[in-house]
Design brief:
Length: 685
C-alpha cells in the first residue's frame, strides 16, 4: 500500500470514500424503508461503487455518459445529490431526470457543468448502440470542424451479462471499425438476475472483446480504488489522445439484491464470499494507509447519514406528478406548421419521385453541415440500391455519406447518439422487410427519448424506408409495415405519394426536432408502373416545406341529390388505384391522400366522410388488425350519424407474405379492378 500512496492525492481518496459511503447509506436506507421505497422497483450500486466512482471522477462537462440502472454511485460522483436521486426513486414530479416517468438510476441530464447524459432504456445491452452513436457523432463533429478545441468521449456502462446481447456486438464492431472515442465499462458481478455466469456465457467480456481487432481491454479488480482510478485514467488518456475505443472489464461483487423486487436471499449461495470483497472495507483500509484518523472517518459517515436521512424526509414530502403531466413532451414543438415556398415553380419539367427526395437531401446537406446520411449501400460506389442517394457521397465526402454493415439496429439506434451531439442523421433501412432487427432501437430508444427524459433529449433524425410491392419483389422486398410503425408512439410517419409531397415532407422532417420515418413507395419512385405517372411532379423550390398532419384532396367531388358519392381515404400506391378506379364513375368518388400517418389529419377525413356519407379506406397492407382498420373504426365512431353504409376497408389478403410469382402476387394485393367492385357495391348500398 505504501508504494501506491503517491499515485492518487489524499483528497481524491477522501472524496471517493464520501461518495461510496453515500451510495452505501442510500442502499441501506432503501432497505430499511422498503415499505415506502418498495413501491417502485429499483437497484443499487452496492458492491460496484469503487469502479463507478473512479469513472465518475474522471468525467468532465464535455463528456457523455450512459449510466446503467445500477450506477447510482457513479451519478453521485459526477455531482448528483442524494435528494435528486431519491426524487426519481419515489417517482416525484421534480425528478430531474424524467419527471417521475421512469425508474431509479435511469438518468437523463442536460445541465451546465455536468457530463451530458442522453436518455437510454432500461440498459440490458440496448444502450451500447446509442452510446456508440454518440462517439460516432463526436468523431464526425471533430472531422468536420463542428467541434473544436475539445476532446470529449463517451462512456457506455454495461453489466457483463448484458454483453451477450447481439446489439452490443454491433456497437463494438462499429467502434473498432471507425476508431471511435468511447469507453465500454463492463461491470462483472457474475450474475444475470438468478442465472450465474457459468450458465449464461461461454467467456467473460475480456475474452469476448478479443474478437474485435483494435479494441484494447483492461481487466481489473473493480473493488480496488487505486487500480480502478489509474486504469480509468489511462483509458481516458488513450481515448482522448489516440482516438480509439477501450474496454475496461471490472470484476465486482453484487452485495445487494438484483432489484428491490428480486431479492438476493431467494437464490444466492455466494453471499458470504461476495461480502468478503466489499469495496467499502477496502477503501476504508486505504484511508488508514493514508494516515486518516478513525475519528475523521466516523465524522464523514455521520455527516452523510444525517444528510441522507434528511433528504429522504424531504423527498417523501415532495410533490407527485399531476395527472395533466402525463400529456407533456410526447413530441418536441416543430417550427414547421404551415406550407411555405413554391410548390410548382414555372419552367420546370416533371421530376420522378426518387429524384425529388435526392434533391431535397442534397439541398439540406449543402446548407447544413450537421446533416449526414448513412445506411447500407448508400455510399460512394452505389448511392443506394434505388439510386436514392446517387452522387451524394461524391459531392459531400465519405465522412458525411457512408455505408454501414448490415446492422439495422445500429443504423437506427445510433441516431439517438448522433442527435444528442447536435447532428441531424438521415439514415436508411434498405427495404421495409428488413426493418425488424431495428425495431427494438426504434421503439425503446428513439421513440421514447423525449418523453422519458421529460423533454430534455428529443431524437432529431430521419429514417428512410423504401416500402411496398413493385412487381414480383417477392416475400422479402415487397412488405408494407406501417401498422407496426404507427403503433410505436413517439415517432412521426410520412407516406407521400408524389414527388412534391416527398420533397416538402423531407424538408419538414429535417427541421422537426422529433424522429421521423419516411415511407417511400418503391413502385412510385420512377413512375414506371402503369397509372402512377402523376407521382412525378414539378420539383418544388428549395424553400418549400409541407407540414405534417395535412392531408391532400386528390380529386374533389360535390354531393349530388340524384346519385350517391363516396370518399376514399388512402395513401401511397392506394392513391393511384383510387384515381384509376374513379374513372369508372361519374364524379362520384372523392380521394383523400393522407400524406402523413402520424400525425393524422382527422379533420379532413371526417369532413369528407360527412360530405359523402360513404367511405372506403384503402391500403396495400393486409387488412386484419391494420392501421387502415383503425382509421375505419375512428370514422365509424366519429361519423356514425352521417353514414349511409358501413365503412369498407380494402387491402391485401391476410397471407403471411407476398409471394414471388406474379399471379399469386396479383391475387393477394389490391388493385383498381378490385376497388371498382367495392366502390360499386357501396354506392348501391
Amino acid at each position: 500500500m505504501e508504494l501506491q500512496k503517491n499515485k492518487i492525492h489524499i483528497d481524491t481518496v477522501k472524496k471517493a470514500f464520501r461518495y461510496l459511503v453515500t451510495a452505501k447509506t442510500l442502499a441501506e436506507l432503501y432497505e430499511d424503508q422498503k415499505h415506502i421505497t418498495g413501491k417502485y422497483v429499483h437497484a443499487t450500486s452496492r458492491g460496484h461503487e469503487v469502479i463507478q466512482i473512479a469513472t465518475g471522477l474522471h468525467l468532465t462537462a464535455q463528456d457523455y455518459l450512459s449510466a446503467y440502472y445500477r450506477d447510482d454511485a457513479m451519478l453521485l460522483s459526477i455531482g448528483i445529490t442524494p435528494y435528486e436521486l431519491m426524487l426519481q426513486l419515489l417517482a416525484k414530479r421534480d425528478d430531474i431526470f424524467s419527471g417521475g416517468r421512469t425508474y431509479y438510476s435511469h438518468p437523463s441530464l442536460k445541465r451546465e457543468g455536468f457530463p451530458k447524459i442522453p436518455h437510454q432504456s432500461s440498459a440490458t445491452g440496448m444502450q451500447a448502440i446509442p452510446t456508440t452513436g454518440i462517439a460516432m457523432g463526436i468523431q464526425y463533429a471533430q472531422q468536420t470542424g463542428l467541434l473544436a478545441n475539445e476532446k470529449p468521449l463517451a462512456v457506455c456502462s454495461l453489466g457483463d451479462a448484458s454483453c451477450t446481447e447481439g446489439e452490443v456486438s454491433e456497437a463494438l464492431q462499429m467502434a473498432v471499425l471507425k476508431k471511435l472515442p468511447i469507453l465500454y465499462l463492463v461491470q462483472d458481478n457474475e450474475w444475470d438476475i438468478s442465472a450465474s455466469a457459468d450458465e449464461i456465457r461461454a467467456q467473460d467480456m475480456t475474452h469476448f472483446a478479443k474478437g474485435f481487432k483494435g479494441l484494447e481491454t483492461f481487466t481489473i479488480d473493480g473493488t480496488d480504488f487505486i487500480e480502478s482510478y489509474t486504469t480509468i485514467e489511462k483509458a481516458f488518456d488513450i481515448i482522448r489522445n489516440e482516438n480509439r475505443p477501450v474496454l475496461v472489464h471490472a470484476k465486482v461483487p453484487l452485495l445487494n439484491h438484483h432489484t428491490s423486487g428480486v431479492r438476493k436471499e431467494w437464490y444466492r449461495d455466494d453471499l458470504e464470499e461476495a461480502q468478503s470483497r466489499d469495496p467499502y472495507n477496502k477503501l476504508k483500509e486505504l484511508l488508514y494507509a493514508y494516515d486518516v484518523e478513525v475519528t475523521e472517518i466516523d465524522q464523514i459517515e455521520k455527516e452523510i447519514y444525517d444528510l441522507v436521512q434528511s433528504d429522504f424526509e424531504k423527498a417523501c414530502a415532495a410533490e407527485d406528478p399531476k395527472p395533466e403531466d402525463l400529456y407533456s413532451h410526447v413530441f418536441a414543438p416543430t417550427p414547421i406548421t404551415e406550407e411555405k415556398g413554391n410548390r410548382t415553380p414555372e419552367g420546370k419539367d416533371k421530376t420522378v419521385m426518387v429524384d425529388s427526395a435526392l434533391f431535397a437531401i442534397r439541398e439540406l446537406m449543402a446548407k447544413h453541415p450537421e446533416a449526414l446520411l448513412y445506411g447500407q449501400d448508400v455510399g460512394l460506389r452505389l448511392g443506394g440500391v434505388f439510386r436514392e442517394a446517387a452522387t451524394l457521397a461524391k459531392q459531400f465526402g465519405q465522412e458525411r455519406v457512408f455505408n454501414t454493415p448490415i446492422q439495422e439496429a445500429f443504423i437506427i439506434g445510433s441516431t439517438v447518439g448522433m442527435s444528442a451531439v447536435g447532428l441531424k442523421p438521415i439514415v436508411e433501412v434498405q427495404f421495409a422487410d428488413y426493418i425488424w432487427p431495428g425495431l427494438n432501437q426504434l421503439f425503446t430508444e428513439v421513440a421514447r427519448s423525449n418523453y422519458l427524459s421529460n423533454g430534455q433529449w428529443p431524437v432529431s433524425m430521419i429514417l428512410r424506408v423504401p416500402i411496398g410491392a413493385y412487381g414480383s419483389g417477392g416475400p422479402y422486398h415487397s412488405s408494407s409495415v406501417e401498422s407496426v410503425l404507427t403503433s410505436i408512439k413517439g415517432i412521426k410517419i410520412a407516406y407521400p405519394s408524389t414527388g412534391a409531397d416527398l420533397k416538402g415532407l423531407m424538408k419538414a422532417a429535417y427541421y422537426d426536432p422529433n424522429p421521423v420515418v419516411m415511407l417511400e413507395h418503391k413502385g412510385l419512385y420512377w413512375s414506371k408502373m402503369k397509372g402512377t405517372e402523376d407521382a412525378a411532379t414539378v420539383e418544388p423550390d428549395e424553400d418549400y416545406v409541407l407540414p405534417f398532419g395535412k392531408a391532400r384532396v386528390v380529386d374533389e367531388v360535390s354531393p349530388c341529390q340524384d346519385k350517391n358519392t363516396v370518399t376514399i381515404i388512402t395513401y401511397g400506391m392506394g392513391v393511384y388505384w383510387a384515381k384509376e378506379a374513379a374513372k369508372n364513375f361519374d364524379n362520384q368518388v372523392e380521394i383523400i391522400d393522407l400524406r402523413t400517418l402520424v400525425p393524422l389529419d382527422e379533420t379532413s377525413i371526417y369532413d369528407s366522410v360527412k360530405k359523402h356519407n360513404r367511405c372506403i379506406v384503402l391500403t396495400e397492407e393486409q387488412v386484419s388488425g391494420s392501421y387502415a382498420e383503425s382509421i375505419a373504426g375512428r370514422i365509424s365512431k366519429e361519423c356514425f350519424q352521417f353514414l349511409d353504409a358501413p365503412v369498407e376497408v380494402l387491402g391485401a389478403k391476410d397471407m403471411p407474405a407476398i409471394p414471388l410469382n406474379s399471379v399469386l402476387e396479383a391475387e393477394m394485393l389490391p388493385n383498381s379492378e378490385k376497388l371498382i367492385s367495392v366502390i360499386d357495391s357501396i354506392l348501391r348500398y
